[in-house]
């Protein structure tokens, strides 16, 4: 069905005139002064209907036209605008008053209904907008969404929120003019907008056809100067509409929230860095100092010519120097690796790795640390994992080294792999004393060392590194520890053999 054409107020005047004319043409030939009450009621009905539909102006017009028609066609002397009987004159005045009053009341009702509908539509729009904005995951995303909603509400082609003295983009719709950085013209207009605290318009890129008009609106109550850049010549009436005003206020508040959340994040990062520094100093100073002390003592003893050291003593000093240097190297390289991973400079190069071949390489690498232990490897052929080769090798090696450190000297260590839907699970297990339940929640924290490590040397960084490396490969690590024996499991995305 074709949509009903929208009738304007001018159409209303025409319809009212036609209705009064039609009613007169219909009734005047058959009714006269004796039916004046019925006739007046019919004209009153027409007046009220048009007033309800087109407002008070059309209502007044219809009431006067109807009054004149009643006078002209029904009240003697007929076909003249004069009245013989005073009672008829009173009737005509009364008719006019009732018609005008009725028209006024109905047009008010109509206005109120229209206002209520508009407010309902505004509320629904704002509610939808708020829902969209609240769903945003980051402050930037929230500001982008707010720009989309603002552009829709102001009938703009795009919108951006610019903040700070150099007008950096805090949020924008994705179109090219909105997301483009502020131009020199923008900065000049912004200064004017901040000074006058009123919206302003410029024609950007005047050479272009069609010329593009941009409207700037100041934002208040933010810690830094900020404004909206709306692409389009938005009339003041639109800018002052309740919805746009509500969204402009929301933009100011959202910008302020984004600033506060940035500040909180920065404060948090500083606090974390401070905490990291303190923990680093207290945990590592011992790990760095004690091997250095041992090396220094061994070297000083060897250099002491007043003592005649036996060959065994000398070998023992040299062994100390070697093992303590290894320990120092391990600590320093763990620290460097941790700061590299934490600094976000490591870009994993993910590739398809065949697990059985990876296990062969790892077995060769860890063989010297295993001594006489039984090392059981079961990597079924044809299982492929998607990971960074270097990171994954290092993570598994760390787990094997831990198994060596924390399990009984002759206890076997197993390295195995099996597929799960979409994943490959790689486990390193030992038959050591296991991990006390109170240690389990903290194992992967930086610098955390078990409560019962005794004399076993370590920095508490090994498992934190394992977790960071595995997560960079898109995987996760978990631990199971029965009263005896510990099993660490890496879960990584599986893949197919490259063609
Ligand atoms: P470190 O070995 O330097 O102490 P890690 O981060 O590698 O640091 O390990 C953290 C803690 O986890 C260790 O101190 C230890 O208590 C516990 N742990 C790790 N691996 C094992 C294991 N295979 N068996 C028992 N405990 C373990």
Topology of helices and strands:
Blueprint: H1 9-27, H2 36-54, H3 56-74, H4 86-134, H5 139-153, E1 158-163, E2 168-172, H6 176-179, H7 184-196, E3 200-204, E4 212-219, E5 226-231, H8 236-239, H9 242-303, H10 311-342, E6 350-354, H11 355-370, E7 375-378, E8 384-388, H12 389-406, E9 413-420, E10 423-430, H13 462-472, E11 476-481, E12 486-495
Parallel strand pairs: 7-9
Antiparallel strand pairs: 1-2, 1-5, 3-4, 4-5, 6-8, 8-12, 9-10, 10-12, 11-12
Helix pairs in contact: 1-2, 1-3, 2-3, 2-4, 3-4, 4-5, 4-9, 5-9, 9-10, 10-13, 11-12, 12-13
The structure holds adenosine-5'-diphosphate.
Task: Describe the protein's architecture and organization.
The chain is of the alpha+beta class and 499 residues long. The chain has helices at 9-27, 36-54, 56-74, 86-134, 139-153, 176-179, 184-196, 236-239, 242-303, 311-342, 355-370, 389-406, 462-472; strands at residues 158-163, 168-172, 200-204, 212-219, 226-231, 350-354, 375-378, 384-388, 413-420, 423-430, 476-481, 486-495. Strands 6, 7, 8, 9, 10, 11 and 12 form a seven-stranded mixed β-sheet that branches. It has a five-stranded antiparallel β-sheet with strand order 2-1-5-4-3. Helix 1 runs parallel beside helix 3 (56-74). The longest helix is centred in the middle third of the chain and has 62 residues, at 242-303. The model has no long low-confidence stretch (mean pLDDT 88). The structure holds adenosine-5'-diphosphate.
């Amino acid at each position: 069905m074709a949509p009903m054409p929208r009738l304007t107020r001018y159409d209303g005047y025409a319809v009212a005139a036609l209705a009064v004319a039609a009613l007169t043409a219909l009734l005047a030939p058959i009714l006269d002064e004796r039916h004046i009450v019925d006739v007046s009621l019919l004209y009153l009905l027409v007046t009220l209907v048009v007033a309800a539909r087109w407002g008070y102006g059309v209502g007044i017009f219809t009431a006067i036209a109807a009054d004149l028609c009643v006078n002209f066609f029904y009240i003697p002397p007929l076909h003249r605008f004069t009245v013989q009987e005073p009672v008829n004159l009173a009737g005509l005045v009364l008719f006019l008053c009732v018609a005008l009053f009725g028209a006024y009341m109905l047009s008010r009702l109509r206005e109120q209904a229209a206002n209520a509908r508009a407010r309902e539509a505004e509320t629904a729009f704002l509610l939808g907008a708020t829902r969209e904005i609240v769903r945003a995951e980051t402050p930037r995303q929230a500001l982008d969404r707010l720009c989309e909603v603002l552009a829709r509400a102001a009938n703009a082609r795009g919108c951006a929120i610019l903040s700070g003295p150099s007008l950096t983009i805090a949020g924008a719709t994705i179109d090219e003019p909105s997301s483009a950085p502020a131009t020199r013209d923008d900065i000049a207009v912004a200064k004017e907008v901040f000074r006058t605290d009123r919206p302003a318009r410029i024609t950007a890129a005047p050479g272009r056809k069609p010329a593009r008009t941009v409207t700037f609106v100041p934002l208040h109550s933010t810690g830094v100067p900020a404004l909206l850049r709306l692409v389009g010549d938005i009339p003041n009436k639109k800018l002052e509409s309740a919805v746009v005003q509500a969204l402009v206020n929301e933009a100011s508040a959202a910008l302020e929230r984004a600033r506060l959340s940035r500040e909180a994040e920065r404060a948090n990062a500083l606090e974390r860095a401070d905490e990291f520094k303190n923990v680093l100093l207290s945990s590592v100073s011992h790990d760095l100092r004690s091997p250095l002390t041992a090396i220094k003592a061994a070297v000083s003893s060897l250099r002491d010519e007043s003592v005649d050291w036996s060959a065994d003593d000398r070998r023992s000093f040299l062994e100390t120097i070697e093992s303590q240097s290894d320990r120092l190297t391990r600590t320093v390289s763990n620290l460097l690796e941790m700061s590299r991973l934490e600094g976000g400079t490591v870009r994993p190069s993910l590739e398809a790795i065949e697990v059985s071949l990876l296990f062969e390489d790892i077995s060769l690498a860890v063989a010297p640390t295993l001594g006489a232990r039984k090392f059981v490897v079961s990597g079924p052929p044809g299982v492929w994992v998607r990971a960074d080769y270097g990171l994954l090798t290092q993570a598994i090696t760390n787990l094997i080294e831990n198994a060596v450190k924390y399990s009984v000297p002759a206890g076997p260590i197993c390295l195995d792999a099996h597929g799960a839907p979409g994943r490959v699970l790689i486990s390193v297990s030992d038959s050591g004393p296991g991990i006390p339940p109170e240690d389990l929640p903290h194992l992967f924290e930086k610098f955390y060392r078990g409560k019962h490590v005794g004399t076993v040397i370590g920095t508490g960084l090994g498992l934190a590194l394992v977790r960071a490396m595995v997560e960079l490969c898109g995987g996760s690590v978990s631990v199971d520890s029965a009263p005896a024996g510990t099993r660490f499991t890496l879960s990584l995305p599986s893949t197919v053999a490259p063609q």
